[in-house]
Amino acid sequence: AQKVTQAQTEISVVEKEDVTLDCVYETRDTTYYLFWYKQPPSGELVFLIRRNSFDEQNEISGRYSWNFQKSTSSFNFTITASQVVDSAVYFCALLGGYAGGTSYGKLTFGQGTILTVHP
Amino acid sequence: GAGVSQSPSNKVTEKGKDVELRCDPISGHTALYWYRQRLGQGLEFLIYFQGNSAPDKSGLPSDRFSAERTGESVSTLTIQRTQQEDSAVYLCASSRRGGVNTGELFFGEGSRLTVL
């Protein structure tokens, strides 16, 4: 079984603060992929990043950075110098199912973290 | 089209009626997914199509739910004898490839279903 836990339901910060969104996952698969998606108020989910389980290198893209730690089954997302436009719901997701093959292609989402950035 | 298109964007129906939700994926995308998002909740996986076949239907909540895909293109999600707990936003997503090669999923704006 696959599970993604985003323990932070809501986070509120003031503009220019750094904020980290936590994601912990569970899977029995040795090969899997992790994703982060952003859902702004308009509702349409926007892809942010995809990482495979063999690549633990941290990634930085502008103000966004991701910390993948296989030892703790975590894939945390940090926004540096947050802006009001970062306000959205952020979802972490896990793609697995290769070991048993029965969940091939099933992308399991966490419950999401609502981020509000105040001016 | 340019993106994933879903229709209707909003549907209000009475309990017990059947509804059909449609998804037009991005042209050429072989993988298609349906998710359900209840108010304030995460995304709940319903079904995944690779081409026209559905290797994973494990998320369909009950036998009132069914989905099909034709021509490796349009997909229809049908809910029979709707119940109030079916009220949610139904999201469709497509991906250029599926399975192990699944990369970015492109989501539509969703169909908001309200069952009175």
Written account of the structure:
The complex is a heterodimer of chains A (119) and B (116). Chain A has strands at residues 3-5, 10-14, 19-21, 24-26, 33-39, 46-52, 59-61, 64-69, 74-79, 88-95, 107-109, 113-118. Chain A has 119 residues and is mostly beta strands. In chain A, a hairpin with a 6-residue loop joins strand 5 and strand 6. The radius of gyration of chain A is 14 Å and the shape is globular. Chain A has no helices and 12 strands. The N and C termini of chain A lie far apart (41 Å). Chain B is mainly beta. Chain B is built from no helices and 11 strands. In chain B, the strands form 2 sheets. In chain B, strands 2, 4, 5, 6, 9, 10 and 11 form a 7-stranded mixed β-sheet that branches. In chain B, strands 1-3-8-7 form a 4-stranded antiparallel β-sheet, with no helix packed on it. In chain B, a hairpin with a 5-residue loop joins strand 7 (65-69) and strand 8. Chain B starts with a strand and ends with a strand. The relative contact order of chain B is 0.33. Chain A binds chain B through residues 6, 31, 33, 35, 37, 42-47, 50, 91, 93, 95, 97-98, 102-112, and chain B through 31, 33, 35, 41-45, 48, 50, 55-56, 58-59, 89, 91, 93, 98-100, 102-110.
Compact description:
Chain A has 119 residues and is mainly β.
